[in-house]
Amino acid sequence: MRCPCLSGEIFDNCCGPLLAGRAAPTAERLMRSRFTAFARGDAAHLLRTWHPSTRPAELELEDAIRWTRLDVIGTEQGGPFDSEGVVAFEAFFREAGQVGSMRERSRFVREGREWFYLDGVAG
To answer: Are 89 and 73 in contact (CB under 8 A)?
Structure first.
């Protein structure tokens, strides 16, 4: 099956290993895996990849929201040798028969070999 992040890869070669606990090599790959976690209802992955300084104590995902598409708008740094990165994206969803989208500019930090979602600005 194709990966929900729309990378063009199959899930087992794309976000599957990251949701299973493998470290993401780049900030963009982590962001794609987090979108896939929203699409699949995997709150544990979202919490595990959220930086401890900004991570909420718990996370409830909305069952009524179905995440359908991810468009990466741009990236700044976030490569395998960077310690910080930014990924701008638009995520599309369906809720109660309506189609919508949200845009965010997300910040990521790398500690050791692991990338973490730090925070984001919607808009």
So the answer is: yes
